[in-house]
Amino acid sequence: MTSIKRWMNPRVWAYVFGYLFAVMMIAPLLWMLISAFKEPGSTVTILGKLFGTPFSLESFAKVMKPDGTAMMWRWTLNSVIVGVVQTAITVLLSSWAAFAVSRIPFKGKTFIFALILAGMMVPVESIVVPLFQMVTDMGWSNSYNALIWPGMMLPLAFLILKQFIDQLPNELLEAAKMDGAGIFRIWARIIFPLSSSSMAAVSIFIFIQSWNNLLWPMLVAQDTAMMTLPVGIPTFQSIFATDLAVPMASNVLASIPALLVFLFFQKHIIKGISMTGIK
Amino acid sequence: MKQHRSHAYKNYLAALAFLAPFMVIYLWFWIYPIIKGFMTSLSKGSMGGEKTFAGLDNYSYMMSDDKFWSSLWNTLYFILISTPSIVVLGLVLALIVNMKLKGTTLLRTAFFMPYMLSVSVIGSIWVFILQSRTGFIAETLSSMGITMGVSFFGSWGMGWLSILIATLWWTAGFNMILFLAGLQEIPDDLYEAADIDGAGAWNKFRFITMPSLKGVTALVVILQTISSFKLFGQTWLITKGGPGTSTTPLVHYIYQIAFKQWDTGYAAAVSFVLFLIIALISLIQYKLLMSKS
Predict the structure, then answer these.
(1) Which residues cross the membrane (chain B) (predicted)?
(2) Cβ–Cβ contact A45 with B under 8 A
(3) Are B129 and B135 in contact (CB under 8 A)?
(4) In a domain, A9, yes or no
């Protein structure tokens, strides 16, 4: 009787499936990591030989070798530059715009709000063709400008920040106005510090999107030196047909920054994703 | 009266100052491309070359273009297979994490970790695992004396299965977080009341958890539908859209028309249709959210 009761306990099942799923999610990552420590030229490691020696750092060395095929440092740097600049601009401009629409009474506000809201319905994928023409016409091919300005997630950041600013108590702003604070000071002294945790969550969400962006950077960065990681990695790996170790070493190197960000900012990341959902 | 007017004027200037930088970038890189894209879709000519006005020719060609219809059908097929599986997997993972087992942080980290990787790394990992003859699965099987009878990238069905596996593995954690947020909004006293009534675990799930998650589930379904319409990275990296065009979704097809065949006008027309579809879905989403609150 008790054994049947135990059998029916959902917690037991949760343990079984929880750890089973965890193993399934981690296994490909672990396989990537172990394969990267094999010698260059190693073919796909079968399960039986996965943990066998020899291990070496040669594959990493080969990826890092500055012979122009894999510019790992450069690609990582490009991804970081594009990600950080895009995130900073998006969040700052959105915070200003959200503050204006939320707290300053002016004519045409409804129109502006509707116009920005409409942007939520436009996927970047559906405007890459005209964007590519614009960028080419401006002579921006293979430049940071081309990588950074198009496709910033302005409407999403605006909406999330506006929702937060809407909820702030009016007394706070009135008190500041009484003290004769200018409108920029109100933003800098009240809105900015109070919404900093929302801004952090939005920032991380936008940074991840930017970090993962493949289609747009692939179109505008054809120079090896201007590629971001998602573009550079497949280009580099396409020359290795059977070699497993070197491509996996490049995967590991490409993943380290994102995984570090995750380990340090796990709470913010989860908050950022929840916020896109709750709205 | 005069003072009132100057106040409104001051507000106007302030609003303008705060809005201007945002609006410049937004109009330049979001709104203008839509208009430019629509104009381009009414023309014939290649990227950078001379363009001539062609009316609705591109659109009428689209209606008879088998490749367009097959890429649209491929996209719809991916929605059909990916949406139910991402809902079930995301919900199950969220329920597990929400039960506060021993090692919950570890479980949540493991479930979410793949989402942090770049789509290029995801693609590369799954190609090396799944590819025939030299893939991890094929080699492991053959070392045990089993020949793998099917090829993961060899047919329409298996190709989509590979894309589905990679996508589920990559994004399950993201959807888990959405469900988790929904679960944590359910007030505890609902469950406590059910405990007093002596309700079992299944009934609590059936009559409290499931109805409370309606909103989140609708959100996950819509987000997955939209992201299926934007599907590009996985097919481009894993199956290359093949065999033939069997795993080529809409965005992948647009990419081919625009940047392999350089038929800018037609690519813009297909893009505009994609824009209309996603705008429609977003409108439905907006209506749903509005009716809720």
Answers:
(1) 12-35, 76-97, 109-129, 160-181, 265-284
(2) yes
(3) yes
(4) yes
Is A263 part of any domain? no
DSSP class of residue B27 equals: I
Core vs surface per residue A23-56: b (16+ CB within 10 A) or e: eebbebbebbebbbbbebebebbbeeeeeeeeee
Q: A177 is written with which tokens?
A: 């106005």
Quick: pLDDT tens for B163-219.
999 999 999 999 999 999 899 888 888 888 888 888 888 888 888 898 989 888 988
Residue A27 maps to a domain: yes
A44, A170: one domain: no
Report the alpha-carbon distance of residue A15 to residue B36 in Å, rounded: 55
- The CA distance from A249 to the nearest CA of chain B, in Å, is 11
Range of the domain at A51: 2-63
A73 and A56, same domain (yes or no):
no
Q: Is B199 helix (H, G, I), strand (E, B) or coil?
A: coil
Query: Which residue among B25, B34, B106 sits closest to A149, beta carbon to beta carbon?
Result: B25
Domain count, chain A: 2
Supply angle C-alpha B56, B60, B66, rounded to 5: 145
SS3 A243: coil
Please state the CATH superfamily assignment of the domain spanning residues B64-292 in this structure. Answer: MetI-like (1.10.3720.10)
Which positions 66-95 of B are in contact with A (Cβ < 8 Å)? 92-93, 95
Q: Is A19 on the interface with B (CB under 8 A)?
A: yes
Helix A10-36 × helix B66-98 angle, to 10°: 120
Give the nearest partner residue to B107 out of A22, A237, A274, using CB atoms.
Answer: A22
User: For residue range A139-195, what is the model confidence (pLDDT) as tens digits?
Assistant: 999 999 999 999 888 898 998 899 889 888 888 888 877 777 788 888 888 889 888
Instruction: Identify the three-state secondary structure at position A142.
Output: coil
